[in-house]
Write a structure and sequence with these properties.
Elements: H1 16-19, E1 29-30, H2 33-42, E2 45-51, H3 56-66, H4 69-78, E3 79-85, H5 90-104, E4 111-115, E5 121-125, H6 130-146, H7 148-164, H8 179-190, H9 209-221, H10 225-240, E6 254-255, E7 263-264, E8 267-268, H11 269-286, H12 289-305, E9 316-317, E10 320-321, E11 324-325, H13 333-340, H14 344-347, H15 373-380, H16 384-402, E12 410-411, E13 414-415, H17 416-432, H18 436-452, E14 463-464, H19 475-492, H20 495-511, H21 545-559, H22 563-580, H23 588-599, E15 602-607, H24 611-618, E16 626-630, H25 637-640, E17 648-653, E18 656-657, H26 664-671
Parallel strand pairs: 1-3, 2-3, 15-16
Antiparallel strand pairs: 2-4, 4-5, 6-7, 8-9, 9-12, 10-11, 13-14, 15-17, 17-18
Helix pairs in contact: 4-6, 5-7, 6-7, 9-10, 9-11, 9-23, 11-12, 11-17, 15-16, 17-18, 17-19, 18-19, 19-20, 19-21, 20-21, 21-22, 22-23
Length: about 675
């Protein structure tokens, strides 16, 4: 990076991504009143350039164009240039991404959008080569100087498109949902399963944790073999593949091929938080020791590499180190043998290490495995326990050796929404594996957010870095954090979590309400006014904030017996329901809510002096459609009149409670009816 020139105004930013551009010759600004006013005053076009720190092509475009003086000259002369970190300002990203999709039919990052002085988009795209980029800048600047009415026409058309896209109107017809509604979603969805490698039959392959969470639950509740096989196959193949870090734990963002072999090496908090939840749930489903190991290793990575001094979790690790993608994670045969010594010959085949390298284009090895431990031990004539011991020792040695390497860049800002996903994963795994340390990690992060990231008016901030929080939260920050609070309550029965969840939910209903739609806006009424206020409806690598919020409303409505919550959740689902069958994987979280409607949610209330003991026993059984309550002196409607010294378990469903029983086995008979 060239530091000879003076820094631009990004030097004051909190985002590591923006700071990476502080010494570009481009006169970048951070999004805010000053550059927006400057564009209006000087009647200049605005160039909005959006990316994030772990984005490979963002770095390439920076090297080729934004560090180049010839390019910077054109940008600085004709445009007010604004750099945006999409992780800090998803509200801005959402609008301009939609503009690019309407213009070009596809989107991605880096996202470069040219706008009028009033922020309305006129032209844009993703990655551009240097010469193409200069041409485009000159052409659009020329149009603005000579034919401004043409630019205004483009802007009108695009802005209308942005405002009307994804309009969801209330669906008056409240249907009684049935198993047939679920089948019509799953049948077209199943055609895309890859039954040999897991996931979907395409490349690249993304983990999409929420899709497989739905599949696990669907396969269990509907007793569907196809969904059962493909969900478990996918989880096994992902964890055996190169997309999983066999040495240090944690998953990369996606694999570039169809067999989970070569990852795009960046590791994101949002994927790993969800995958910790998913593999924990899969363990409850089939008790696979392999799935538990994936969770344990991933949490060890989270604690070792992604935890801030405050106990929050950082956003991401870059794919590159020393300017080379994946360099931190790969091994030559010589390195592998030098570290493992005499065990190398036993474990080479297990980790798929070859002399020429299993990642052909780089002539090196990405560690992965094609074998389960039992099969491999048999082939090598070893006892399984001996092999397992060798594998654990090898991982420890490889990790120690790897930690001497130059580390990939860390994006050390902490985002509330993604912390919510991680807190939930930790609370659930702490519960399922009876591991108090995981619970303590979850509790520490959640307590920090509640104590230090609240806004004056009772809301939440989105981000925390270097001791300060600055951006007011978006709907996903509330949705995933409320979900995390509900998970913590089910872990320790401390009603403080639920009361905070309820308080934040009321804040959301007030500040994110759309009077013309059952959906909630992505931005708060108090937030900065952009050219449109959007809803986030479709589930992607992260579930949509509306689907997550609808589930929160459903669960809190049951826990507090608050009909206005459950009615709101039902209205949201009803409005989306007609869309789900058209594209199951993009509505998987809504489909999970639908499962709760078809099969009902079991409310399991445990009274007595030791509810934890009962809960431990219940956790050994897979009941995906449940919420557990417990404790004495409670104000929760389901526990209020049920005080007793001896343990009693109440199973309630659809506002009806069965007579209390004394053992988990008796309780399960009610659930399995």
């Amino acid at each position: 990076m060239n530091h000879n020139n003076e820094p631009n105004s990004l030097i004051k930013a909190s985002s590591p991504y923006l700071l990476q551009h502080a010494y570009n010759p481009v006169q970048w600004y951070e999004w805010g009143p000053e550059p927006l006013q400057k564009a209006r005053d000087e009647n200049k076009l605005i160039l909005v350039s959006i990316g994030y720190s772990a984005c490979h092509w963002c770095h390439v475009m920076e090297r080729e164009s934004f560090e180049d003086h010839e390019v910077a000259e054109v940008m600085n002369r004709d445009f007010v240039c604004i750099k945006v970190d999409r992780e800090e300002r998803p509200d801005i990203d959402q609008i301009y991404m939609l503009a690019i999709q309407l213009m070009t039919g596809s989107g991605g990052w880096p996202l470069n959008c040219i706008c009028l002085p009033d922020q309305r988009p006129v032209y844009g795209g993703t990655y551009f080569r240097k010469t193409d980029w200069i041409n485009i800048l000159q052409n659009v600047a020329n149009m603005w100087a000579t034919e401004p009415e043409k630019a205004l026409q483009y802007a009108d058309r695009l802005t209308d498109g942005i405002r009307s896209a994804e309009k969801i109107l209330p669906n008056v017809k409240q249907t009684d949902y049935t198993k047939d509604h679920l089948k019509e979603i799953i049948e077209p969805w199943k055609r895309h399963f890859d039954m040999s490698e897991g996931g979907y039959n395409r490349a690249p392959k993304f983990p999409l944790p929420n899709n497989w969470q739905f599949m696990l639950r669907y396969s269990h509740l509907m007793e569907d073999d196809g969904a059962h096989v493909s969900a478990l196959l996918t989880l096994e193949k992902m964890a055996m593949g190169g997309i999983y870090d066999h040495v240090g734990g944690g998953f990369a963002r996606y694999s570039v091929d169809g067999s989970w072999h070569v990852p795009h090496f960046e590791k994101m908090l949002y994927d790993n938080g969800q995958l910790i939840s998913l593999y924990t749930e899969a363990y409850q489903y089939n008790r696979s020791a392999f799935f538990k190991e994936v969770v344990d290793e991933s949490i060890a990575w989270l604690e070792r590499e992604m935890t801030s001094p405050e106990g929050l979790f950082y956003s991401a690790l870059d794919a590159d180190s020393e300017g080379v993608e994946g360099k931190f994670y790969v091994w030559s045969e010589e390195e592998f043998e030098a570290v493992l010594g005499e065990d190398a010959h036993v474990l080479r085949d297990y980790f798929h290490v070859t002399a020429e390298g299993n990642w052909e284009e780089e002539e090196t090895n990405i560690l992965l495995t094609r074998f389960n431990e039992e099969e491999y031990a048999e082939v090598k004539g070893l006892k399984v326990a001996v092999l397992q011991d060798k594998i654990r020792t090898a991982k420890t040695k490889l990790l120690a050796e790897r930690s001497k390497r130059v580390r990939p860049g860390l994006d050390d800002k902490c985002i509330t929404a993604w912390n919510g996903l991680a807190i939930k994963g930790l609370a659930q795994s702490g519960d399922a594996f009876a591991n108090p340390h995981y619970y303590e990690m979850a509790k520490k992060a959640a307590s920090f957010i509640l104590n230090h990231m609240g806004t004056e008016d009772g809301g939440l901030y989105r981000n925390f870095k270097s001791g300060k929080a600055s951006i007011p939260g978006f709907l996903d920050d509330y949705a995933f954090f409320i979900d995390a609070l509900i998970a913590l309550y089910q872990s320790d029965f401390d009603e403080r979590w639920l009361n905070e969840a309820r308080r934040l939910t009321d804040y959301v209903l007030k500040e994110f309400d759309d009077t013309e739609s059952p959906m909630l806006f992505y931005t708060s009424a108090k937030g900065e006014a952009l050219i449109a206020r959007k809803h986030e409806i479709m589930d992607n690598v992260i579930p949509s904030s509306n689907s997550a919020m609808a589930q929160n409303l459903q669960i809190l409505g049951l826990l507090f017996d608050k009909e206005s919550y459950t009615d709101k959740a039902a209205g949201m689902l009803a409005a989306v329901h007609p869309q789900i069958k058209t594209y199951g994987s993009a509505y998987s979280n809504w489909a999970i809510q639908l499962l709760g409607e078809v099969f009902s949610i079991h409310e399991i209330a445990i009274t007595g002096s030791d509810p934890d003991l009962v809960k431990k026993e219940l956790n050994r059984v897979y009941i995906p459609n449940k919420i557990i309550l417990g404790g004495t002196n409670s104000d929760l409607p389901l526990l209020k009149d049920k005080q007793s010294i001896e343990t009693k378990i109440y199973i309630c469903r659809n506002k009806t409670c069965q007579l209390p029983v004394g053992t988990v086995n008796e309780a399960l008979q009610f659930i399995n009816k």
